[in-house]
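Let's sit down with a protein and look at its sequence and fold side by side. Once you have written the record down, we can walk along the chain together.
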Amino acid sequence: MNKEWIKVVVASFFEVLWVIGLKHANDFWTWAGTAVAIFISFYLMIMAGRKLPVGTVYAVFVGLGTAGTVLSEILIFGEPFKVEKVLLILFLLAGVVGLKLVTSDNVQEGDES
């Protein structure tokens, strides 16, 4: 996995943080942390999209973010565990992995700003 895909995975992690922040932030510092997480996640996704196919980057970003958000709600915040929900998340992750596998890792040389 090259560094551009690592950026997508890290961006997805920060996406989970800001989605949690949107639901649970209640003071200046938690809102500030949410804003920082939004900035980092979109910055990394945009940087990866400069060299990788944008559609695939976005699909992987959203898929990993969705899976991470649902799992964090179950594991951290006490959302009820439902087998159907977990199976659908696994199905989603299979699609994300499939997209990654069929997408070329050839990094396109671009204009570095």
Summary: Helices lie at 3-24, 28-49, 54-75, 83-102. Residues 3-102 form one domain.
